[in-house]
Amino acid sequence: MARPYPKTVAIFAAVACSLLSAATICTSFTVSSISTTTRKRTIRYGAAQIVTSGDDPASIKAAASFMVDSFWLKSPQNLIQGGEGSQEVSDTARSALIQQQEEDLTDKYGERMGKRLLESCLLIASNENGDMAGLVGIEARLLDVSTEEILTAEASESKLKGAIASLGPKQRRQYKDSPAAELVAELLPPDLKLACVLSNLCVSPSTRRSGLGSKLCQAAEEVAKGDWGFDDMYLRVEADNTAARALYEERLGYERKFCDDEAKGLRVDLEAGDFTEIGAKTFTLVKSLS
């Protein structure tokens, strides 16, 4: 992947392209999930339904196309570098962006060689016609309390694998089937804690202000609490994205935890068919799930 989407930059929930009214009622949606470890289950929120399932490469590919078309190219935040979001997009540029997004989503949520130490789940919402209407992802990652940094999934797994590799054969066998929470608590420094992170919230332009974004977040929180046992949910959002912050802070109850004045955000370079980094002050928010 030429420029891995959230590996180089922590976009997380700054990808909120839906700004939803808490008073509106969502029309009928079905929400399924691509999950690395989450058990199959059904979660209901009024007319919305969330069904968790195994990983699905075809759905990941569809999710990548959806994110490019509905978020990167049509976000109210205007994520097209040097443009107003209405520029013509060539088929070549669009395909290149979708390919990069697909590789990132596959790396996070798709099937891979070897066992994942950290859980991840992508929830996908469909409307009555079966068309994709929104999505959101959650991942278990390491939070470095001393630096106020949420590590990437790759860096988080690397630290855990390194800690296991440093053990003797007998100890490695002891921790062979241990959950990530136990590995983090017993093998890593106390400044590193396991955190559940919400990311990639995206709702189609035709579905904005329907309440679906809030329902996706609530579904993600229920998986994090009910399936994975987390007591808190974290996310990152750009400080200038006031509409997204209103959704999280005012409607969903997230509170500001950290501020990163030196953070980077991603924007779309249509001419190159690539993602490019810019400076973007970013807040880390947290919500108690208890």
Q: What order do the SSEs take from the amino end to the carboxyl end, as H and E?
A: HEEEHHEEEHHHEHEHEEEE
- Low-confidence parts: 1-27
- Strand percentage, roughly? 25-35%
Radius of gyration: 18 Å
As an assembly, this protein is single chain
Question: Which bin fits the share of residues in helices?
Answer: 25-40%
Which descriptors would you attach to this protein?
two-stranded antiparallel sheet, 29% strand, 8 helices, 32% helix, 290 residues, ten-stranded mixed beta sheet, 12 strands, disordered N terminus, alpha+beta, globular
Can you describe what's shown?
This protein has eight helices and twelve strands. A hairpin with a 4-residue loop joins β10 (264-269) and β11 (274-279). The chain is α+β, with helices and mostly antiparallel strands and 290 residues long. The chain starts with a helix and ends with a strand. Helix content is 32%, strand content 29%. Mean pLDDT is 83; it is low at 1-27. α2 packs across α3. Strands 1, 2, 3, 4, 5, 6, 7, 8, 9 and 12 form a ten-stranded mixed sheet that branches. The protein has a two-stranded antiparallel sheet with strand order 10-11.
Lay out the secondary structure.
Blueprint lengths: L4 H4 L20 E7 L6 E4 L2 E6 L3 H16 L18 H19 L10 E7 L5 E13 L4 E2 L2 H13 L3 H6 L5 H8 L4 E12 L8 H16 L4 E7 L3 H10 L3 E6 L3 E6 L4 E6 L2 E7 L2
Parallel strand pairs: 1-3, 7-8
Antiparallel strand pairs: 1-4, 2-3, 4-5, 5-6, 5-7, 8-12, 9-12, 10-11
